[in-house]
Design a protein that fits this description.
single chain; 126 residues; 5 helices; 2 strands; elongated
Length: 126
Amino acid sequence: MGLHKRTELTAKQKQAAFLYAIELKTMKEISSIINISEQSLCKWKKDPMWQEEVDRILKEEWRESCKSLQKIMIKKAKDGDFKSLEYVLSSNGYKAPEQVIMTEKTINITIDDDNEEDFSEEDYNE
């Protein structure tokens, strides 16, 4: 009879990897939560497949955190926060400008009942 090499982790091993990587649970807590012995958990911890799963989980969590941070920083940059603009640009491979000149424009539009339109524009800080 030949040896059977496993190709993936069990559901409990995956759960243990998540609890270890994301929830930062201790070995004792993990063994209690998933109902296995600490000795088994210590064996899993040495298993390269289990270590790869922990790494995969951490990388995925990092990617998701970066996406959330990017969204927050983009919103702040749009609201005029120069440090956020600098972060967004540099994290996407661009150099932030050394100086930003902002202008504000106000456009007033009045529509009369006679379908005549009156447009006026004022420029500030130009």
